[in-house]
Description:
Layout: H1 2-8, H2 24-45, H3 49-70
Helix pairs in contact: 2-3
Amino acid sequence: IHETLQGMFNKDDLSDVVVDPMNIEDFFQYVLIPEVAVRLIMGDMNLRGPNGMASATKIMKESWSYGSQMFPAE
């Protein structure tokens, strides 16, 4: 997800002011990546609306340990 998002945005066009008080890497890590992950889970599991988002968030949190062991960050 991180590599795909980085490819979608030209870092020269992004400034830290846009996501103040975070820097752009923190914004990717703590906002964009989790949001995309939840949306992908919602799509995979055919979840909709606020309840679907809550369910997808729960699934993401419950599977975090497995995912980080099977797919460690490079």
